[in-house]
């Protein structure tokens, strides 16, 4: 893997997580569109790099051990911290839904339409989706073992995801986010050599079309436009080896903290000045400070704990 491609996705994911943060802060707003694109990039990157690392022939036991070692302890450290936050704020903690959250199955409550009765749960659906991604990866990788099959899987999944996103009321842009992982795996397994500039042009035109649809009130094509724009962005990132990020390259250093930022940010929004932009900056500083502490704490866990 070209290190420049890895850097592209590292920076894009960091920008995406701060877009998600801002989208939740200013909700509801037009930011839900770039937030959805950001979630797609997260999912695509996960599928893409997983396929590059493991391919279609993998030791499933070792695969899951690696995933649990990399994500499991971090997740439980975050939830331990959030449990303390909930108790200090007088929220409900002693409920069976809290156990669901600690098992990483928050998304099940969301997707089944069950109202969450625990003080935990905000944003934890994405961790459940990650588990679903990794559970489905071995079969998905085998389905995409050749380029023609990968194309069929990607195209069919795109059509189905757009339809389900339009017809279902699950929320979280679940189907488009799931599509990101599927397309990422298909792309990683087939590794097509494409030029970056047509993808960049398609992404730019998609953004223009989305803005035009929003300004005119015509939103019937939003889902399809977001899907195609997201795919174009990821294809561009996967092929653009000549990007000069300059100072933005430092953002890649925050990639290690993305899971923590995503899981805790809505719990740590503060409003000390009641000035929205300034309070967003203050909240972001608080979130980053706590994130670094939690990440270091999870890394300091005994090796045996992290491996099992």
UniProtKB/TrEMBL annotation:
Molecular functions (GO terms): acyltransferase activity, transferring groups other than amino-acyl groups
Keyword line: Acyltransferase, Membrane, Transferase, Transmembrane, Transmembrane helix
InterPro entries: Acyl_transf_3_dom
Transmembrane segment boundaries: 7-26, 32-54, 75-99, 119-140, 170-189, 196-218, 224-245, 280-298
Domain of life: Bacteria
Keyword Cell inner membrane: no
One Pfam family linked to the record: Acyl_transf_3
Domain Acyltransferase: 11-294
Protein's name in the database: Acyltransferase family protein
Protein species of origin: Duganella vulcania
Lineage: Bacteria, Pseudomonadati, Pseudomonadota, Betaproteobacteria, Burkholderiales
